[in-house]
Amino acid sequence: MLNQSLRAPTVAKAPVDPSRSPADQFFATTGHAGLIASEFTYKKEEEIYGEDEPSEYVYQVVSGAVRSYKLLSDGRRQIGAFYLPGDVFGLESGPTHRLTAEAIVDTTVRLLKRRSLEQAAATDVHVARSLWSMTAGELRHAEDHMLLLGRKNAMERVANFLLEMDRRLAVAGMMALPMCRRDIGDYLGLTLETVSRALSQLQSQGILGFSGARQIELRNRQQLRNLDA
Amino acid sequence: MLNQSLRAPTVAKAPVDPSRSPADQFFATTGHAGLIASEFTYKKEEEIYGEDEPSEYVYQVVSGAVRSYKLLSDGRRQIGAFYLPGDVFGLESGPTHRLTAEAIVDTTVRLLKRRSLEQAAATDVHVARSLWSMTAGELRHAEDHMLLLGRKNAMERVANFLLEMDRRLAVAGMMALPMCRRDIGDYLGLTLETVSRALSQLQSQGILGFSGARQIELRNRQQLRNLDA
DNA sequence: CGACGGATTGATCGTGCTCAAATCATGTGG
DNA sequence: CCACATGATTTGAGCACGATCAATCCGTCG
């Protein structure tokens, strides 16, 4: 799937929005090191790489959204992270990917050969530092998420999710969620029904409003923060 | 607490067992870079560093055991990792520690100034690579643990814990757990009672044997692996 | 030996899961 | 442009797993 997907990537042209923190600086930093980034588009539901596959590329979302997950043999799934425009994913220190990555909707990514990154890191201390910072950022997220998964109740998890998504993709006070209820549940360690019930309850309390199941407006962020333990 | 703890650390003398993978090579690698490691001992239950404190040192367990955790305001605790002899902990890419670390039992650590590590990494690409690998190793563990916390049932979690501890600290087929049932529960996202019940059930099935609550012998690792999803 | 903290075991409860049905949204073909 | 098909979401009813509350039991250390 990775092989198929990466036939003849075209050279990058569209710049990613040049705001935000370490993740966004990443491809910029590598640009200074003379690395060439390509672009590629994956269809909705398409696999970008699989768990345990050799790690050949590092990716940055240009548009769309990606889910990264692990599966148990009986199909139980834990989504470790969602990647949204500007986010970098697929960076490994070891030889293989440890989670599967899939496009949630049609998604365009910029990509960089892992090998060239490694080479750049060997001579450019800023690139090396950037690789470490990226991984440390993912670790920080995972540590916060372990607390959520191990110790928060359903409403706290959903409130936390809404605030995270609001921060990451709100436009004009509105967020357009790219993922379905099942994805949200598999991210939060809940079932899709429990997620739905929590959202309905928040709506009935006036804390949020819907315009379609995936178009959400937060009407009271402070109350949401109180709900998030 | 960190300040107090680190008054007058003595120069390192005892070498840590020179086996195991990336974590163990870490202090060795830094040794090549001419860095000086000190030793220090913490008493049982003593805090080594606190969440959000400035990260000044990197630690390696010489003897003893450490728990690293996050707390919610109402006291709910999620232990992210246990650190055992040979393990490195407290390494941050950012300025502060994101979890609290405490000695579970009397614990001796070797420590290295974070600043000197950063300086070494700026000139020695092996050190830089080592820092990245360490963080990536922690991330891998966190990713596996998110799957456990989000999607595994109580018995699967306990089986997984036993296999992890067996791998990391078994001596002559026996393991001496340094942590209490509450710590295990807070690591696995369970209560101490649930952990105790699972262990009792495994004993009644002959999968393990006790000689004191914390001295455990695994009698059937394969069956344990089957129980761990 | 006694006291104390840790561990086990029991009984009951409650949150979130499961199973099921109805409703809604979306896109496709006539 | 509408009708319908399909998948996503919501909502309901009942259940089960792990939590909670409580009472021993045990092991360790003074």
UniProtKB/TrEMBL annotation, chains A, B:
Gene Ontology, cellular component aspect: cytosol
Domain HTH crp-type intervals: 152-222
GO molecular function: DNA binding; DNA-binding transcription factor activity
Record Pfam families: cNMP_binding, HTH_Crp_2
UniProt keyword Cell cycle present: no
Keyword terms: DNA-binding, Nitrogen fixation, Transcription, Transcription regulation
Ranges for region Disordered: 1-23
Annotated Gene3D superfamilies: Jelly Rolls, Winged helix-like DNA-binding domain superfamily/Winged helix DNA-binding domain
Domain of life where this protein originates: Bacteria
Descriptive protein name: Nitrogen fixation protein FixK
Gene name tied to this protein: fixK
